Amino acid sequence: MLNQIFRLILPGLLIASNAMASPQDPLQSVMWDFMLKNELKLDPGQVIFDDRIEIYAPASVEDGMNVPVSVKVNGLEQVEEIIVLADHNPIQRALNFYPGAADPYIAFRMKVQEATPIRAVVRTVNGKWYAGGVWLNAPGGGCTTASVSQQSQLWESSLNRIGAQVWNKSDGGDRLRMRIIHPMDTGLVSSIPAFFIESLSLRDNEGNHIARLETFEAVSENPVFTFSVPADATNGVGYQLVGNDNNGNVFAARVNIPESPLNLESLFAVND
Questions:
Q1: Cα–Cα distance for residue pair 236/172, rounded to 1 Å
Q2: End-to-end CA distance of the chain
Q3: Where are the alpha helices (DSSP H) in the chain?
Q4: What phi and psi, each to the nearest 5 degrees, are found at residue 126?
Q5: Dist CA 85 CA 34 (whole Å)
Q6: CA-to-CA distance for 30 and 13, rounded, in angstroms?
Q7: How does pLDDT run across 110-146, given as a tens digit for each residue?
Q8: Does domain 28-36+46-270 have CATH number 2.30.40.10?
Q9: CB 130 within 8 A of CB 102
Q10: Each residue of 229-244: pLDDT tens digit?
Q11: With contact defined as beta carbons under 8 Å apart, do 60 and 114 qualify?
Q12: What span, in angstroms and rounded, lies between the C-alpha atoms of 113 and 140?
Protein backbone atom coordinates (compact mmCIF):
# COMPACT_ATOMS: atom_id res chain seq x y z
CA MET A 1 0.00 0.00 0.00
CA LEU A 2 2.81 2.40 0.92
CA ASN A 3 4.58 1.65 -2.35
CA GLN A 4 1.42 2.50 -4.29
CA ILE A 5 1.06 5.80 -2.40
CA PHE A 6 4.73 6.62 -3.05
CA ARG A 7 4.34 5.94 -6.77
CA LEU A 8 1.37 8.29 -6.85
CA ILE A 9 3.11 11.07 -4.91
CA LEU A 10 6.57 10.96 -6.56
CA PRO A 11 5.47 12.08 -10.07
CA GLY A 12 3.73 15.04 -8.51
CA LEU A 13 6.85 16.00 -6.57
CA LEU A 14 8.98 15.75 -9.70
CA ILE A 15 6.53 17.91 -11.67
CA ALA A 16 6.52 20.51 -8.89
CA SER A 17 10.32 20.43 -8.71
CA ASN A 18 10.68 20.93 -12.46
CA ALA A 19 8.13 23.71 -12.35
CA MET A 20 10.36 25.55 -9.84
CA ALA A 21 13.40 25.32 -12.11
CA SER A 22 14.26 28.46 -14.06
CA PRO A 23 13.23 28.21 -17.73
CA GLN A 24 16.46 30.10 -18.55
CA ASP A 25 18.68 27.40 -17.02
CA PRO A 26 19.72 24.71 -19.55
CA LEU A 27 20.52 22.35 -16.65
CA GLN A 28 17.07 22.89 -15.10
CA SER A 29 18.29 23.10 -11.52
CA VAL A 30 15.83 24.15 -8.85
CA MET A 31 18.68 25.95 -7.06
CA TRP A 32 19.84 28.19 -9.92
CA ASP A 33 17.67 31.24 -9.25
CA PHE A 34 18.23 30.91 -5.49
CA MET A 35 22.00 30.73 -6.00
CA LEU A 36 21.97 33.71 -8.34
CA LYS A 37 20.13 35.85 -5.81
CA ASN A 38 21.79 34.73 -2.58
CA GLU A 39 25.30 33.68 -3.62
CA LEU A 40 26.03 35.93 -6.59
CA LYS A 41 23.63 38.82 -5.89
CA LEU A 42 22.47 38.77 -9.52
CA ASP A 43 19.12 38.60 -11.32
CA PRO A 44 18.47 35.75 -13.81
CA GLY A 45 18.35 38.21 -16.69
CA GLN A 46 21.91 39.37 -15.97
CA VAL A 47 23.53 36.02 -16.85
CA ILE A 48 23.89 34.65 -20.38
CA PHE A 49 24.45 30.90 -20.84
CA ASP A 50 27.30 30.53 -23.31
CA ASP A 51 29.03 27.47 -24.84
CA ARG A 52 32.32 29.36 -24.92
CA ILE A 53 32.63 28.56 -21.21
CA GLU A 54 33.88 24.98 -21.15
CA ILE A 55 33.68 22.98 -17.93
CA TYR A 56 35.35 19.59 -17.74
CA ALA A 57 34.26 17.21 -14.98
CA PRO A 58 33.47 13.49 -14.94
CA ALA A 59 29.83 12.57 -15.47
CA SER A 60 30.03 10.36 -12.40
CA VAL A 61 32.50 10.06 -9.51
CA GLU A 62 32.99 7.60 -6.66
CA ASP A 63 34.84 9.99 -4.33
CA GLY A 64 32.83 13.11 -3.56
CA MET A 65 35.80 14.61 -1.71
CA ASN A 66 38.05 14.76 -4.80
CA VAL A 67 36.18 15.81 -7.94
CA PRO A 68 38.44 17.06 -10.77
CA VAL A 69 37.11 20.23 -12.39
CA SER A 70 38.62 22.50 -15.00
CA VAL A 71 37.25 25.66 -16.57
CA LYS A 72 38.39 27.14 -19.87
CA VAL A 73 36.94 30.28 -21.44
CA ASN A 74 37.25 30.65 -25.21
CA GLY A 75 36.49 33.77 -27.20
CA LEU A 76 35.29 36.07 -24.42
CA GLU A 77 37.54 39.11 -24.31
CA GLN A 78 39.07 40.45 -21.09
CA VAL A 79 37.75 37.95 -18.55
CA GLU A 80 37.98 39.59 -15.13
CA GLU A 81 36.58 36.86 -12.88
CA ILE A 82 35.61 33.18 -12.95
CA ILE A 83 33.44 31.82 -10.14
CA VAL A 84 33.01 28.05 -9.71
CA LEU A 85 29.96 26.78 -7.81
CA ALA A 86 28.04 23.59 -7.05
CA ASP A 87 24.28 24.14 -6.88
CA HIS A 88 23.47 21.40 -4.35
CA ASN A 89 26.44 21.84 -2.03
CA PRO A 90 25.90 23.22 1.49
CA ILE A 91 28.90 25.42 0.61
CA GLN A 92 28.08 26.35 -2.96
CA ARG A 93 31.10 28.48 -3.85
CA ALA A 94 34.42 26.73 -4.45
CA LEU A 95 36.58 29.59 -5.72
CA ASN A 96 36.86 32.97 -7.39
CA PHE A 97 39.62 33.17 -10.00
CA TYR A 98 40.91 36.52 -11.24
CA PRO A 99 43.07 35.64 -14.29
CA GLY A 100 44.86 38.97 -14.62
CA ALA A 101 47.76 38.30 -16.99
CA ALA A 102 47.11 34.51 -17.01
CA ASP A 103 44.85 32.67 -19.42
CA PRO A 104 41.18 32.33 -18.36
CA TYR A 105 41.77 28.72 -17.35
CA ILE A 106 41.82 27.02 -13.96
CA ALA A 107 41.90 23.36 -12.93
CA PHE A 108 41.52 21.98 -9.40
CA ARG A 109 39.65 19.42 -7.27
CA MET A 110 36.58 20.11 -5.16
CA LYS A 111 34.16 18.47 -2.74
CA VAL A 112 30.51 17.77 -3.64
CA GLN A 113 27.83 16.71 -1.22
CA GLU A 114 25.57 14.98 -3.76
CA ALA A 115 24.66 14.91 -7.45
CA THR A 116 24.79 18.52 -8.60
CA PRO A 117 25.38 20.92 -11.47
CA ILE A 118 28.92 22.33 -11.48
CA ARG A 119 28.88 25.93 -12.73
CA ALA A 120 31.37 28.48 -13.96
CA VAL A 121 30.07 32.05 -13.93
CA VAL A 122 32.28 34.53 -15.79
CA ARG A 123 32.45 38.32 -15.57
CA THR A 124 34.07 40.29 -18.38
CA VAL A 125 35.61 43.76 -18.18
CA ASN A 126 32.43 45.36 -19.53
CA GLY A 127 30.42 44.03 -16.57
CA LYS A 128 28.58 41.29 -18.48
CA TRP A 129 28.05 37.87 -16.90
CA TYR A 130 28.16 34.52 -18.70
CA ALA A 131 27.69 30.96 -17.41
CA GLY A 132 28.36 27.36 -18.34
CA GLY A 133 27.77 24.14 -16.48
CA VAL A 134 27.62 20.34 -16.41
CA TRP A 135 25.73 17.79 -14.32
CA LEU A 136 27.78 15.59 -12.02
CA ASN A 137 26.57 12.37 -10.39
CA ALA A 138 28.28 11.74 -7.04
CA PRO A 139 27.78 9.85 -3.77
CA GLY A 140 26.71 11.76 -0.67
CA GLY A 141 28.87 13.30 2.00
CA GLY A 142 31.80 14.99 0.26
CA CYS A 143 31.41 18.18 2.33
CA THR A 144 30.51 16.49 5.64
CA THR A 145 33.32 13.92 5.89
CA ALA A 146 36.48 14.63 7.90
CA SER A 147 39.62 15.10 5.85
CA VAL A 148 42.23 12.33 5.85
CA SER A 149 44.74 14.83 7.25
CA GLN A 150 42.54 15.58 10.24
CA GLN A 151 42.12 11.91 11.03
CA SER A 152 45.89 11.30 11.00
CA GLN A 153 47.05 14.72 12.25
CA LEU A 154 50.00 14.48 9.83
CA TRP A 155 49.13 17.92 8.49
CA GLU A 156 50.53 19.50 11.67
CA SER A 157 54.11 18.81 10.54
CA SER A 158 53.66 19.78 6.89
CA LEU A 159 50.98 22.49 6.84
CA ASN A 160 51.28 24.84 3.84
CA ARG A 161 54.18 22.93 2.31
CA ILE A 162 54.07 23.57 -1.44
CA GLY A 163 55.16 21.46 -4.40
CA ALA A 164 55.17 22.64 -8.00
CA GLN A 165 55.85 21.66 -11.58
CA VAL A 166 56.08 23.69 -14.79
CA TRP A 167 55.65 22.55 -18.39
CA ASN A 168 56.45 24.64 -21.45
CA LYS A 169 53.52 25.14 -23.84
CA SER A 170 53.82 25.19 -27.61
CA ASP A 171 52.95 28.92 -27.68
CA GLY A 172 55.98 29.77 -25.51
CA GLY A 173 54.01 30.13 -22.30
CA ASP A 174 53.91 27.86 -19.25
CA ARG A 175 51.52 25.42 -17.65
CA LEU A 176 52.02 25.66 -13.90
CA ARG A 177 50.71 23.20 -11.29
CA MET A 178 51.02 23.76 -7.54
CA ARG A 179 50.00 21.54 -4.60
CA ILE A 180 49.56 22.90 -1.07
CA ILE A 181 49.34 20.70 2.02
CA HIS A 182 46.23 21.85 3.89
CA PRO A 183 43.21 20.00 5.38
CA MET A 184 40.65 22.43 3.86
CA ASP A 185 38.10 21.57 6.57
CA THR A 186 34.54 22.70 5.85
CA GLY A 187 33.39 23.20 9.45
CA LEU A 188 30.48 20.81 8.76
CA VAL A 189 32.07 17.89 10.67
CA SER A 190 31.39 17.73 14.41
CA SER A 191 34.18 19.22 16.57
CA ILE A 192 36.29 20.22 13.53
CA PRO A 193 36.10 23.97 12.80
CA ALA A 194 36.39 25.44 9.33
CA PHE A 195 40.06 25.66 8.37
CA PHE A 196 40.82 26.51 4.76
CA ILE A 197 43.03 28.52 2.43
CA GLU A 198 41.47 31.91 1.70
CA SER A 199 43.66 33.54 -0.92
CA LEU A 200 46.52 32.80 -3.31
CA SER A 201 48.52 35.19 -5.46
CA LEU A 202 50.54 33.96 -8.44
CA ARG A 203 53.46 36.25 -9.30
CA ASP A 204 56.53 36.18 -11.50
CA ASN A 205 59.97 35.73 -9.93
CA GLU A 206 60.29 39.51 -9.51
CA GLY A 207 57.02 39.73 -7.57
CA ASN A 208 54.86 41.15 -10.38
CA HIS A 209 51.21 40.10 -10.20
CA ILE A 210 49.97 37.46 -12.65
CA ALA A 211 46.74 36.02 -11.21
CA ARG A 212 44.79 35.72 -7.97
CA LEU A 213 42.54 33.10 -6.35
CA GLU A 214 40.01 33.32 -3.53
CA THR A 215 39.30 29.80 -2.28
CA PHE A 216 36.62 28.39 -0.01
CA GLU A 217 35.85 25.28 2.04
CA ALA A 218 34.50 23.33 -0.97
CA VAL A 219 38.01 23.00 -2.45
CA SER A 220 39.49 19.54 -1.80
CA GLU A 221 42.03 18.70 0.87
CA ASN A 222 45.68 19.31 -0.14
CA PRO A 223 44.51 21.38 -3.11
CA VAL A 224 46.18 21.24 -6.51
CA PHE A 225 45.74 24.24 -8.80
CA THR A 226 46.78 24.39 -12.45
CA PHE A 227 47.32 27.70 -14.25
CA SER A 228 48.08 28.55 -17.87
CA VAL A 229 50.40 31.51 -18.37
CA PRO A 230 50.82 33.02 -21.87
CA ALA A 231 54.25 33.80 -23.31
CA ASP A 232 53.88 37.55 -22.84
CA ALA A 233 53.26 37.11 -19.09
CA THR A 234 56.34 35.03 -18.28
CA ASN A 235 60.06 35.65 -18.62
CA GLY A 236 60.85 31.96 -18.36
CA VAL A 237 62.74 32.42 -15.09
CA GLY A 238 60.29 31.41 -12.41
CA TYR A 239 57.18 32.05 -10.31
CA GLN A 240 56.11 32.81 -6.77
CA LEU A 241 52.95 31.70 -4.97
CA VAL A 242 51.91 33.67 -1.89
CA GLY A 243 48.83 32.97 0.21
CA ASN A 244 47.09 32.76 3.58
CA ASP A 245 44.40 30.72 5.30
CA ASN A 246 41.51 31.70 7.58
CA ASN A 247 43.61 31.07 10.72
CA GLY A 248 46.14 33.72 9.77
CA ASN A 249 48.84 31.35 8.50
CA VAL A 250 50.88 32.95 5.71
CA PHE A 251 52.97 31.01 3.21
CA ALA A 252 54.95 31.49 0.02
CA ALA A 253 57.16 29.52 -2.35
CA ARG A 254 59.28 30.14 -5.43
CA VAL A 255 59.72 27.92 -8.50
CA ASN A 256 63.08 28.51 -10.19
CA ILE A 257 62.66 27.15 -13.72
CA PRO A 258 66.26 27.38 -15.06
CA GLU A 259 67.64 25.06 -12.37
CA SER A 260 64.87 22.47 -12.52
CA PRO A 261 61.13 22.39 -13.24
CA LEU A 262 60.70 20.74 -9.84
CA ASN A 263 63.05 23.02 -7.86
CA LEU A 264 60.95 24.65 -5.14
CA GLU A 265 62.50 26.99 -2.61
CA SER A 266 60.38 27.95 0.38
CA LEU A 267 60.50 31.68 1.03
CA PHE A 268 58.72 31.71 4.36
CA ALA A 269 56.00 29.95 6.31
CA VAL A 270 54.27 31.27 9.40
CA ASN A 271 52.19 28.48 10.93
CA ASP A 272 51.42 29.83 14.38
A1: 9
A2: 61
A3: 2-20, 32-38, 148-152, 155-158
A4: -85, 5
A5: 13
A6: 12
A7: 999 999 999 999 999 999 999 999 999 988 888 988 8
A8: no
A9: no
A10: 999 998 878 999 999 9
A11: no
A12: 5
